Amino acid sequence: MSDWIDFELADQMTPVAAPECLWERIETARRAPAKAPVRWPIAAVVTLITAAATLWVLELRGQTPFSLEQLAAQELHRSGPLDFDSGDPAAVAAWIRANAGVEIGLPDKTPVRILGASMIRRSGMRIGAVRYEAAGAPAILLISRASAAGDRAHRYFSLACEGPTEAACQLCHI
User: Fold this and answer.
1) Quick check: helix, strand or coil at residue 125?
2) Which structural domain range is residue 43 located in?
3) What's the pTM value of the predicted model, to 2 decimals?
4) Phi-psi region of 136 (alpha: psi -120 to 50; beta: other; left: phi over 0)
5) How many Cα neighbours within 13 Å face the side chain of 131?
6) CA-to-CA dists, residue 47 to 43, 51, 55, 155, angstroms
7) Which of 42, 59, 76 is where one domain is finished?
8) Beta-bridge partners for 158
9) Which of 8, 42, 89, 127 lies 20 to 30 Å (CA to CA) from residue 33?
10) What DSSP state is assigned to residue 171?
11) Same domain, 54 and 35
12) DSSP letter string over 134-156?
């Protein structure tokens, strides 16, 4: 550069105070803006935990909801010992009441041959099963409360048999 510019600059250049707004901009720049938290991984984890808990609760309840009619058909062909062996209608009714928690009225004299009773647990419910023979064919009557909460007034029944249905109904209806 030329000498006169150097001389002029050296003469005019003196220290000056920085404007106040400059210091504010410097301080703001030092504090890096915080990044917004990423929330989608948290939502994904919560969703997975909820799904796992739902599956776990369903497994604890003993399977998915069931049909009493399908269960009766399955139990009709199940082999194995009965929980209570008796041909006495009053004893079978008392056993069902004590173990499954449901009332069943069986007449003292019935044209069917009562074999005994069992208790089945499904979805937190106790279901009484009366096994018998009607017209020489196996039959089963399932009886359960309307809810697992203990509603004794409302009951569900389901009947499965290999013989005529009219003959199987004679367990209760003479």
Assistant:
1) strand
2) 3-59
3) 0.58
4) left
5) 21
6) 6, 6, 12, 38
7) 59
8) 142
9) 42
10) G
11) yes
12) ETTEEEEEEEEESSTT---S-EE
